[in-house]
Amino acid sequence: GQEVEANLAKMCASRFPLSALCGESGVEECKKIYKKKPSKCTCRDFTRENIGRCCCV
């Protein structure tokens, strides 16, 4: 799984932080904010900052 994550991270067309940790709805939130269809988003938690970061393509 980690290689896929790394590859997707390189290809993020858009990266942006969420106001909270990803949680179960993080990816959906990312898609909502990104607004492009179709979109593929991942959400990674940054627990030190207490936020999730979206990566969308």
Automatic annotation (TrEMBL):
Q: Which domain of life is it from?
A: Eukaryota
Q: Where in the cell is it found?
A: Secreted
Cellular component per GO, a single term: extracellular region
Tell me, what is an example of a GO biological process annotation in this record?
signal transduction
Keywords, ordered alphabetically: Disulfide bond, Secreted, Signal
Which Pfam families does the UniProt entry name for this protein?
SCRL
Q: Which family does it belong to?
A: Belongs to the DEFL family.
Q: What is this protein called?
A: S locus protein 11-67
